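Q: Structure for this?
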Amino acid sequence: MSRADSWWREGVIYQIYPRSFQDSNGDGVGDLGGIIRRLPYVAELGADAVWLSPIFPSPMADFGYDICDYTDIHPAFGTLADFDSLLATAHQLGLKVILDLVPNHTSDQHPWFRESREARENPKREWYLWRDPAPGGGVPNNWLSEFGGSAWEYDRRTGQYYYHAFLPAQPDLNWRSSEVRAAIYDAMRFWLRRGVDGFRVDVIWHLIKDDQFRDNPPNPDYHGSDPPSRALLPFYTADQPEVHEVIAQMRSVTEEFGARVLIGEIYLPIERLVAYYGRDLSGLHLPLNFSLLLAPWQARTIAGLIEQYETSLPPGGWPNWVLGNHDQPRVATRVGADQARIAAMLLLTLRGTPTVYYGDEIGMSEAAIAPDKIRDPVAARISGRGRDGCRTPMQWDGTSNAGFSPVEPWLPVSPNFSELNVERQRSDQDSIFNLFRRLIRLRRRTPALASGSYHPLVASGDLLLYVRQKQPDRILVALNLSGDPTAVELSSGTLAGTVAVSSAGDRDGEEVHGRLDLRGNEGAVIALAPETILP
Ligand code: GLC
């Protein structure tokens, strides 16, 4: 694979939630014009690609993850012509553009579903999952919606239920239908032909469900604080063996167009996740790895899961890491502002493609949303699970609405914007934004970080210690995951090198001999000198 073909291996992906990035037409909602205006910022950060959450026509029941036309742009975001200029601007800046493909379900307003629900005999009936009521009446089986309640919605007109893994307004497509497959593959070709560089495929492990519609078994480990859908084990509703055939077909569609990337959203344990690279790597280039997103922020736990992931990957399967997205609480709130820097160092020095969620590069925190400002439908359905707090407008500067919009934004701006914003951090050499920039710059010019091997070193307590290596370069990463000082010493061998990037920015260039003392919440990336002997 040439370097140009494998940009997604060494590159950094930046996720934009379009509604919240930049408003350009003064309606309080972000749009394509706004993204175009801010693309130079993404290039300044040093990212290589942007992934845009859905920008297609949608009633916005789930803010774009409910699509009613796969081959157009929602008017609130702009037009196809705007999209073409976004693509051209991005490419001029050297940025790739990845779109969000949502093939598991459509909006209930999609013409396909409108037809499907018209009559049992409608040719589109088979495009969705329709079932008769159970023999005594009621839902066809015990399947649950990820967003609470039964996954079955009764349709009075035809006397059957349809399946929706998410909202009732998001009916699931029937991926056993070859017509459905052809329709979505054509939509993919529509965008690939226009020049997009790949897709992030929404809930890809959900596409195929059991063809006998068997009941899911109860989950013996269910805790009351888990989302209600966890009460059952999703044996028959997700991660079905036949899904790999569909993914291989999607992969073939992307391959028709050369060096494009296929990324999939998958919340599964590592041992199941790695199957999504497909037989002989015929599946996803990058099955998204959420283990850092879900793990407790504890050095030994994280060391263990890096090890498990690294040793589970199939030969040639390329790793990837995610710290935040539009569905999860902001990392700066999860781990705390001080540890957010350590998290950035981890994300950008592990082996594999990192995804950075917009705003995490300035340490944006989870915003508290007043009840009358809540927009996410999940908030009303599952208490405490609303996702608005991580979707608030990007904090560009200290002017009104943080420079996001001249009018009141669709979600409130976090009150900390006057201190925490891009403009301030740009001019502060020691800001987390500049830490991200220094780390990304270092990755770019250091093959050991971009593509070198990963070797954990023995460490204890709150210290995370590993080496990235590509001969002749060796990089030592030392991260202190606690507020107490710690020391880095090798159990045997000799340590010598120079600090290339330090978390607070004040130790860059420092020489290291024998031992490195780390302050609380401190991390260092050290270019090892040739005399270093590792244990
Ligand atoms: C994915 C998206 C999420 C959406 C869900 C249903 O998990 O990331 O935002 O609500 O799919 O489409």
